[in-house]
Design brief:
2 copies of one chain form a homodimer. With 181 residues, chain A is mainly α. Chain A folds into 2 domains: 83 residues, Winged helix-like DNA-binding domain superfamily/Winged helix DNA-binding domain (Arc Repressor Mutant, subunit A, Orthogonal Bundle), CATH 1.10.10; 85 residues. Chain A has 7 helices and 4 strands; from the N terminus they run H-E-H-H-E-E-H-E-H-H-H. In chain A, helix 6 packs antiparallel against helix 7. Chain A binds a DNA duplex (30 and 30 nucleotides) through helix 3. Chains A, B: InterPro entries: Tscrpt_reg_PadR_C, Tscrpt_reg_PadR_N, WH-like_DNA-bd_sf, WH_DNA-bd_sf. Chains A, B: Pfam families: PadR, Vir_act_alpha_C.
Chain lengths: 181, 181
DNA sequence: TAAACATATGTGAAAATACACATATAAAAA
DNA sequence: TTTTTATATGTGTATTTTCACATATGTTTA
């Protein structure tokens, strides 16, 4: 249900195609919401049926046609209604790596450290990219009127990844200490 | 698919009922995986059909009968096979509050701060409880042989909530600065 | 005295999500 | 020269997850 509000929130800032929305999910929304591209396209169709968005098809010669979506007044009204009057659901997390960590006592220590090292690489990469993105979009912490939300959540993403890396280093230390004994 | 491995991991440590597993999900697994109790009961039934677990029903006079599940050799073998040979999926997150934060530019500043203050309370509570749980279960950082995983992930939970709180304070400061102008 | 909470396990149906696949073309990289 | 990547939007199906509800009883709280 809330996927639509994520999409409406993005459309309230800029009109966009399903493809562009998918890219934005990977770039910025990733810090707090995940969705498959097929799910995004289907939700866009449903929202148009309900009059929350409106689309125009644009022909392109060398690429496939694209559908540009805009938010309607009704859509924006529903977005605000949700934001201000609907209860905040508990966060839902599924972290495959942490699930494995929770069973590290079943596997060899070296293998466990491998998992953490690989995960460190991923998070280091993500951290670098998000920092770069942040510098490009909010140089010296300056943000536009309609960018406040993105500014706050991208900072969340950075802090999350930093905290992840620091925890990872701690966990590796614990494992190495255990390996010695 | 991975829910079953979370359950097998817990059962590999101790036999348990569906009810108890649900409690454990709320207490410790919460830091990396969420599941509804009906989903847990259904997965347990399916796993038993597939011979990964085994159950015995225990009659109780004043409470309803309970089914105590144990992991089978086949179940443990599959758990290890998954841990060591299956690719690690990308984490999936749905955070309703952060989704709202990403649209804070649409609502009054005071209202936005309210959201963050309430969220701070939740995380402060969670942090306290997890710290208490950690002290009870791992006094002075000592953990048993089959508790390594829980030790590492509970520390992750604590650091996550601390980082959350610190980000929250930062965000509130940003909003207050904005409110002044 | 009534309501809520803890114990304990589920079913039926709906909604959300993921997986495999399909289509179509150009540019860039291996 | 073959493969991969980027552009762009989907369908059909399967799996996962949630929601509302059901059952049954003892204790605690308002």
């Amino acid at each position: 249900m809330a996927l639509r509000y994520a999409l409406l929130g993005l459309l309230a800032k800029n009109e966009a195609t399903g493809y562009e929305l998918t890219q934005q999910f990977k770039e910025t929304v990733i810090h707090f919401w995940t969705a498959h591209h097929t799910q995004i396209y289907r939700e866009l169709l449903k929202m148009e049926e309900e009059g929350l968005t409106h689309s125009k098809t644009v022909q392109q010669s060398d690429y496939p046609d694209k559908k540009i979506y805009t938010i309607t007044d009704k859509g924006f009204a529903q977005l605000l209604e949700w934001m201000l009057n609907k209860p905040v659901n508990v966060p839902k997390l599924k972290d495959d790596l942490l699930l494995r960590v929770s069973m590290f006592h079943f596997i060899p220590t070296e293998r466990a450290i491998d998992f953490l090292e690989k995960s460190k690489e991923h998070h280091q990469m993500g951290l670098m990219m998000t920092k770069k993105w942040q510098e490009e979009n909010f140089p010296k912490g300056t943000y536009g009127e309609n960018e406040l939300g993105e500014y706050l959540t991208s900072e969340f993403g950075i802090r999350y990844m930093e905290s992840w890396l620091s925890w990872c280093n701690w966990a590796i230390k614990v494992l190495k200490k255990k390996g010695e004994s």
